[in-house]
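Any chance you could type out some protein's one-letter sequence along with its backbone structure tokens so I can compare the two?
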Amino acid sequence: MNQAARKLKPKYCKVCGDMYDPVKPMQSVCSPLCGLKLVNIRKVEKAKKEFNKETKRLKESIKTKRDYTKEAQREFNKFIRLRDWNQPCISCGDTNNKDYLTGSKWDCGHYRSVGSAPELRFTELNAYKQCVKCNRDLSGNHVEYRINLVKRIGQEQIEWLEGPHEPAKWTIEDLKELKKHYATKAKEQQAKIKEMEEGV
């Protein structure tokens, strides 16, 4: 062993975990046997990565427009719950918002339902945090929803929502962009909430 090698600090072998004295600066294993094992490990990892990549590609290739719509809607709904995290239920005024992240207590309730006005499904003005009871059990609790929404956004905005709208013609690329857009907005809102809760 030369003088330079003696100056190298001991390392832990990436394969067996034992400490050893490296001979070369870039050496990462303690023995030829562990070196061979490391080569095989990396081959398996590479094959697994390529398999996962191909699996993802195949899954994407069989998705329908309906699938992309559901994914975009999921991100939109999450953002609405986060946007309104400190607001009461738009219909009944419930304020127990402990589960705003999971949505188990809260839903994203659309004023104009997705069924009756699909073109407004991704319109932020048309969606608010709503408790599960009002949204699901009471079919949106629409009368109370309207009363409180008028107070929040005004009569003029309500009339716009209730008026006629052009049918939506989202492409798959549009839906992918919507999913990405609202996933980003949700992440940003989560960060803001964390800052506020920590008093930053």
Observations:
- Residues 12-61 form one domain.
- Residues 32-61 form the longest helix (30 residues).
- Strands lie at 11-12, 19-20, 106-110, 127-131.
